[in-house]
Specification:
The chain has about 270 residues and is an alpha+beta fold. The chain has 9 helices and 8 strands. The strands form 3 sheets. It has a 3-stranded antiparallel beta sheet with strand order 1-5-4. A 3-stranded mixed beta sheet has the order 6-7-8. The chain starts with about 35 loop residues before the first helix and ends in a 17-residue tail after the last strand.
């Protein structure tokens, strides 16, 4: 096995665990705290260089349970990224696509690039070079939108052209679990909880504003009254479940066929 050149982002302490994922949770109400990329990204992710062999890179991914490796030069500048998806189409697996003679004749440049991509022996030959990136100042929602639009599971975090972190779906899952496990101090009265549920319903255009009656006792919210679809029922229950201090929800709502209700009465839909 040849020596595998691993690099580290510039400016990071060499004694720092380069696979450490930072999760910061303050003592305030987590629903009001703004989560950002800096809080949840993997700091100083494992990286390889363009001349790292595929066998070495693949062994790193297997040993450290990684689905992607950012590629940097010796100065820590991001130059690409290699994912496990880049290794699916290989002649060693008998999965490399055939290059038809007519395609090779009429599109030789495209065929040549495909040949390198599926048969390259070094990371730099198969990696994606035009990498989508974010910074620590990028709103988390924008980073998630980027990952969804481009169907990527991770996005490098950069400062200038230097790699400083990696935001992955696993980071997002860990942050979500941390938030879900936070237990709020319940200082609200039952009446206040019922009022909050009602106020949240009035803010939603799709919700029945005048037909659902909300009560609460010992942290248990009860929803009663007519609703007009199963989707509406489920959404109202989830809305109540997400209200601070609500421990559980009792569903006493009754389905009403909207074809049998006169919308002009205002009973079904309230006022928008």
């Amino acid at each position: 096995m040849t020596d595998c050149p691993l690099s580290r982002p510039a400016g990071l302490d060499r004694d720092q665990d380069h696979r450490c994922t930072t999760l910061l949770v303050s003592s305030c109400d987590c629903q009001e705290e703004i989560m950002n990329i800096r809080d949840i990204m993997t700091v100083g992710p494992v990286t390889v260089e363009p001349r790292t062999t595929l066998s070495d890179a693949g062994r790193i991914m297997l040993d450290q349970h990684l689905s992607a490796l950012p590629v940097t030069d010796r100065d820590g500048r991001l130059v690409g990224i290699m994912t496990d998806g880049d290794l699916l189409r290989r002649p060693e697996l008998d999965t490399a696509p055939e290059i038809n003679w007519w395609h090779g004749f009429f599109a030789p440049e495209t065929s040549a690039r495909q040949f390198v991509k599926t048969r390259g022996r070094y990371v730099g030959e198969i990696m994606t070079e035009n990498v989508k990136t974010v910074t620590v100042e990028t709103p988390l929602v924008d980073a998630v939108n980027l990952m969804e639009i481009h169907r990527i599971r991770q996005v490098p975090v950069v400062r200038g052209d230097a790699l400083i972190g990696l935001l992955t779906r696993k980071n997002l899952l860990a942050a979500l679990i941390t938030r879900l496990l936070v237990v709020d101090d319940d200082v609200m009265s039952d009446d206040a909880k019922a009022t909050m549920i009602h106020e949240n319903i009035t803010r939603l255009k799709w919700a029945p504003k005048g037909s659902v009656v909300i009560t609460a006792r010992d942290g248990i919210a009860t929803l009663a009254g007519p609703i007009f679809s199963d989707a509406e029922r489920r959404a109202l229950i989830v809305l109540a479940e997400n209200t601070k201090g609500v421990k559980s929800v009792v569903d006493r709502m009754i389905y009403v066929n909207p074809d049998n209700v006169d919308p002009s009465s205002g009973v079904a839909f309230g006022s928008f």
